[in-house]
C-alpha cells in the first residue's frame, strides 16, 4: 500500500494563518461593534411593514420577481426624475429576496440589512484608517442619524448604495493609504454598480481619478482591463436597450445639458439635512418629536459646528503634514540659460517635485481623497439646470460623520499630550459627544415611532406596505369565509400599481379597476361579491349606492390617513337588455334604452350601463381598457366630446360596467347621445434581441380596436332620459 505524504506547511503559510486568526480575534473582541450594529438594526428594522409602498417601490420589486418567474433578463429599472429609464442594477439585487418570496416585505428587509451592513463597514473602514475612537463616533452617528435611517426603510435603488459607497472608498484607500496594487479593478466595478443605482454617483469618478494620480505606482494595466470588462458586463443589457431605442435616453440627457443652469445653495442645504435634519421643527403637538423641539433646535446647530470643525481638522492635517515634510531639492548643480523653454521645463520640474513630495505621505493623501469626496460633488451639484432632490446626496454618506469623529478624536488626542494635562477638559469632550449621540438617538427614535404609529398624517399619494397588505388580506379572508367568488378593488393613480401587484398574491380571483370614471359590478346572477374601496374613492361609493346594495363590513386602517371600506355588494336587478343593435359585438351589451343622468358634487353626469360579453384573465403587468366616448346632440348647438376611460386587470362575462361622463358646462340639454368605444390592451414592452428577452419598465398598448355593433355601425344612439 502506497501512502502519499502531504507537503509540509511552510513557515510563511503558518505566519499568514496566525495573522489572520489574530485579526479575527481582535475584531471579535471589539465590544463596541455589537451595540453599534444592534442600534443600527433596530432603527432600520423596527416595524418595517410601515414602509412606503407606492409605484416606484412596486415596479422595481415586481420587475425582479417577474424576471425570475417569466425568465426575463432585466435591461432597465424604473423611470428617473428626468424621465429617462434607469439601469437595471437594482433589479438584479432585488432578485435575491424575490427568489424566495413574492412578498415585498422581504425586499424591504433586504434594503434595511444592506444599510446595517453600511454602518458596520463604516466602523471597519474608519477604524482601519483613522483610529478606534473616530470609528466608534462615526459609526454611531451614522447609525442614529434621522435621514440615513429614513432612506434605509423602503425599497428604492438610491437606498441601496450605502454599503457600496463605503466599499468603493475602501478600494481607493487600499491604493492611496496602503499603496497596494489590485484596487483599481474593484473600484471601477463598484463605481459602475453605484451609477446603476443612482446616476449622479458618476461624480465619484473624481476621487477615483485623484486616487490614480496620488498612487500611480499601484495601477496595473490588467486591473484597468478587468475593470473596464466588468463595466461592459454589468451595462450589457442596458446598452442593448439603448441600441433598441436609438439611444433615446442619451438624447434626453443631452437636451437637459443644454438648458440654462443656475447656482444656488440647495445642494448644501440637502447635505446639511443628512447630518442635521431639523431645519423645520415639528409643529404637530400630537407627535413625540414635538416634545423634543428644544433639544432638536440645539442639536441642529451643534452638528453643523462639528462638521465644520471636522473639515477644518482634515485641512489642518493636510497642511501641517506637508509643511513638516522635507522638500526635495535639485542637486544637479546645472544652470541652464533662462530661455523660455528652460523656464517652462524648470517650472514643470518644480511642480512635479512638489507633487511627488505631496503624495509621498499616505495619510495626507487619504485626507485629500476624503475632502474631495465631500466637497467636489457639492460644488458640481450647486450649479444645475434640473431640480435637485435630497437622495442625490446619499453618495456623500457617511462622510460628515467620519469628519465629526475625526475632529473629536484629534481634539481629545491634543488634550492628551504630556505638556497639556487637561484631563477634565478631555473627559468633558467625551461627555459632550455622548450628549450629542443621546440627543440624536432620541430625535430619530421619536420620529420613527411617530411614523410607524400613524402620528404623521399622510395624503392620498402616500401608502404603506402594511396598510395595503392588511386591507387586501381582510378582503380575501372575507371572500374565503363566505365562499364568495370574486373580490373587486378600486384604485386611483397613486394606488393602482401597488394594488395590482399585491392583488396577484390573493387566493380569491380579484379585479383591480380604476374608479376615477367607472365602476365594475359583479354579475347579478352570481350573487354578492366583496368590494374593497380606497379611502379617497368616494365617487365609487356614490355609484355603489345608486346601482347596488352595499353592506359595510369593516373599515381596514390606513396608516396616517383615512381608512378603506370593505363591503359586500349585490347589484340591483333593474337591467333591461337592449336589442342587438344596442351592443358592441363581442365586447359590451348596453343595459339601458336611454341615457341616464346623476348629480355628484353639484355636477351633472351622464351615466351609461353595460354588460361585458367577453372574458380576459389577469396577466402580469397587463390591463384592459375601454375608452368610451359620448357626443351630445342638441338643437342649434354643438358640444365637445367627453370620454370615460375604464381600466381593469381582468374582465368577466356578465359583469357590469357603469361608465360616467362629465356633462359639458354651458351645454344645452341634448335630445340624444351618440356613443362610440375603443378597446385597448396594455402590456409590457419587452424587447427581444435574438434569444434574449429584455425586461424593461416601459409599457405599450395594442392597436386600438374600434368597436362595432352587429350591424357594422361604430356608434350607438341613445335618447336623453
Q: Approximately how much helix is present in the residues?
A: 40-55%
- Cα-atom Rg, whole angstroms? 32 Å
Structural class: alpha+beta
The rough form would be described as elongated
Main sheet characteristics:
7 strands, antiparallel
Please indicate the percent range of residues in DSSP E strands (runs of 2 or more): 15-25%
Average pLDDT figure: 89
Count of helical stretches:
22
N-to-C CA distance? 105 Å
Low-confidence stretches: 1-6, 327-336
Number of domains: 3
How many strands appear in the DSSP assignment? 23
Structural features, described:
- The chain has 721 residues and is α+β, with helices and mostly antiparallel strands.
- It has three domains: 30-256 and 267-274 and 282-328 and 353-453, no CATH class; 462-574; 576-721, Immunoglobulin-like (Sandwich), CATH 2.60.40.
- Helix content is 47%, strand content 16%.
- The chain has 22 helices and 23 strands.
- The strands form five sheets. Strands 14, 15, 16, 18, 21, 22 and 23 form a seven-stranded antiparallel sheet that branches.
- The chain starts with 10 loop residues before the first helix and ends with a strand.
